[in-house]
Amino acid sequence: MTEEGAPPPRPVVICGPSGVGEYYSYLSAKVSCLGRLTELFCAGRRGKGTLIELLQKHFAEAHPSEASKFGFSVSHTTRKPRDGEQHGVHYNFTTVDDIKKEISEGKFVEYAEVHGNYYGTSVESVESVLSKGKICLLDIDIQGAQNVKKSSLDAYYIFISPPSMEELERRLRGRGTEKEESILKRLKNAKSEMDYGTEDNFDKVLVNNDLQQTLEDLVELFSKWFPSLLAESNGVENGNLMPPVVDPLSYPKNDEGLRALLSAIDEDCPLEGYVQTELNYKAANVKIPAGKTLDIPLPPVEHNGSKIEWSVTLVDEYNESLDLDFGLVVVVEGNEVECRKKGRIVAPANVEKEGNDDATSETDVGDDADGDQQVVSAKGKFTVANSAPVTVILKLDNSYSWLKPKFVSYEFTIMPPVDSNMIKRSERAKSVLPSIIMGQQELEDAKNIQLSRAKALGRMEVEMEGKRSDLSNQIDDGKKEVGEMKRRIEEAQDEAKRKAEAIKSALDAARKEDESIDDCTKSIIALEEECARLKRQWEELKVERAVREEERLKFEQAAANAKGERENLQEEISAKRGEEQGKLKHLEGLESERKLLENNLIDLTAEKKAREDEGDGYAGEIKFLNLMMEKVKLRFVDIKSKK
């Protein structure tokens, strides 16, 4: 259970494609749940389950005496149980009617319908894990995670991707359990999931190219998100912590502040005078020539109370029943003191055949670093009393073997003593470590917020650049259109001038015709006077006069028509000029808007730079806190070694 008043840890959602190639229908459930989820997605099933198991094993080994810090929410399904499946363990088995009813009541975070069967995660199953103070793990697919994002759950999202689609296809085919049609469907669906699996949609994207490296990245990520895990894996047990002796985050984040913090932790036990460093010396296949002896001195042991553990193994690669004389002495003030009397040892492979009849022979079984049993020829341990400094010497004797050289491997571990001052200093150092870790997390969060803001400003910058480019294109197109309109207006003006000239020519011709008619009239008058004599001529001229009169009327009508056309052209020219003025005003507005956008873009660029600079500042503080934590960890000791 969590401490009273303390919020539960944020849950973790393990997410990957479930039944790739199937089609799901989802409803978004609005739920209320304490804590925050962390979702882990994986494109393709291989690797994700292994990573989850290794992740839990890592933190379980860091503090084996405590219960697991993780818990799985048990999903609901309407399908029938398979052999070996238990209700409430593998699934919560229910009916279609019941799950539909609870879905309608908003009791599910997410659900899917696959081939007539429902699968889903209930709010109750998540809150059940959170109420126990555990980090809740949800194993769902990407579509389900998208529904979780629509709910009120505050989750971390991780996407674990294979190195490539080719590698994913190789893994799917390597199973040997899928038909070709099924593999193609899975690959098609996985492709869309991998396209979705970017850092825009997830808090972290991990490429599972190397299982061990991916696990290390995952452990580092969980340690950052859940500092309590990191504190416990570094030997800080929350239940046994003393209150912080000082607030490490209150000190200046510089060398002077670090020295002041370390001085407050050390008090009267400075690191330089009180240090516990386990020393380990080992060698493999050390040759002792035939008929020779070999003494191997180790570096001096400087502190009284130091504990020394040792082991020696005679190498017998071909099971030749080899043996060797071996002894161990300690040089105290120039005098050799036996720690192990010289006696015969045998190769481990021959222990059963040789037996333990020889009192000088001994063979022991120990544990290696991986927990596997390791057989050695001899081993032991002793404590340096009030005689330091001393020197330990291995004495290897092969003088009785004239033909066969021997080879040995040895390992010595020297643990300096721990006094009460070092234990208190270690407790003080451990008491401030959680505050340092929390400070790191806060700075990381602040840095990520600033970087997110910088990314958002960058996207705005790109959008405004695009808009400015569009406006510039519009302005250029408008200028081209205005230029085309000016060209057309000039052509219309030239056409109007040509028509005006034609009208003028027609009027001049009509005027000349009028003058000609006047001359004819005078001639008629003159002929009338000579009427008697020129009557026929007079009649002809009269007819001619009528014809000319008709032509004059035609010229006047043509002149009137040409005048109307000129007036129409003038009106059209005036309209074109008005339209041109409107276009020019519109272009002036666009030009003003472009200038405004350019000013906004400059401001956004400055804001983005400020955010990035602020993020860099946080990065510097994080680097300093990392240095602070390394310095503090140097003050840790293994309290058990005092026994």
TrEMBL record:
Keywords: ATP-binding, Coiled coil, Kinase, Nucleotide-binding, Transferase
GO MF term (any one): GMP kinase activity
PROSITE patterns, A to Z: GUANYLATE_KINASE_1, GUANYLATE_KINASE_2
EC primary class: transferase
Start and end residues of each Guanylate kinase-like domain: 9-223
GO cellular component, one term: cytosol
Coiled coil: 468-614
Family annotation (PANTHER family): GUANYLATE KINASE, GUANYLATE KINASE-RELATED
Family: Belongs to the guanylate kinase family.
NCBIfam families noted in UniProt: guanyl_kin (TIGR03263)
Protein's name in the database: guanylate kinase
Species of the source: Thalassiosira oceanica
